[in-house]
Amino acid sequence: MPRQTLEQIAANRARYLELKSAGAGHAPLVLPPPSPRDMARPSADSIILSESLPGGWYWTGVIRRRQVLRITNPGATPGVSLLAWNLADPSERYNHADTIKIQWTADLRKGRVLFSDMGRVLLSIVEDSCGRHDTVIGGSTPASVTRTYGPDSGVRNARDNFILAAGKHGLTQRDIPPCITFFAPASVSADGTFAFDASAVTPGDFVSLRAEMDLILAISNTPHPLAPKVEPAPVALTIHTAPAPATDDLCRTATAEAVRGFVNTDAYLSA
User: What is the tens place of the pLDDT at every residue in 8-33?
Assistant: First the structure.
């Protein structure tokens, strides 16, 4: 494919900004500030699973529709990566590109949703004390670990953890898309340079994700590839029940794009 000229790039960017402006103009709600770090934990009688995930390791399992996964980061580990697949049809999976472009932003925080490659909503960010998550760069790999920690360090990485997790559900390396990494304040400058603000990773931050269909989840407690050399600390995983979302639920109504995503999701689940 021939490379685009500067004029073509400028024209494409102008069109993108035009469409983004039109989409943003239909957003009925302003997203709230981050959730307080001392927000009450789920009640004991609502908890289905409570585990500590050691640094470097992974967890995988099933979460049912309307259950909520809370990931708490007491040790300020700079990055916890996640993938999700539709339990009924794992060929449908988290799609980082659609999650960004459908919502016109890579700024994923409370009120945003995670889309599949079928235009349906897999997870909603219902609470979030951090607001700094990366779905552009992806999780750590053997190459990024070698770059940060040196050869033969024995440090685990998200890519290999996801391969192991996928295998437990009959999935293969081909089923592993780019992931989202929570507690990862990565940014990109105008010239395309990536940066990581380690000072923004705060002990006690958490994110709560509501499942919008039955899902397979894989979580890798491995630092973001741009994070400084650290020893990853354990994170806490809690799955708990929650009431059905109200008609004015933030995630279901925050943007016109989310509304359409839930129309697709609800139609699929009711078919």
Answer: 888 888 887 777 666 655 544 689 99
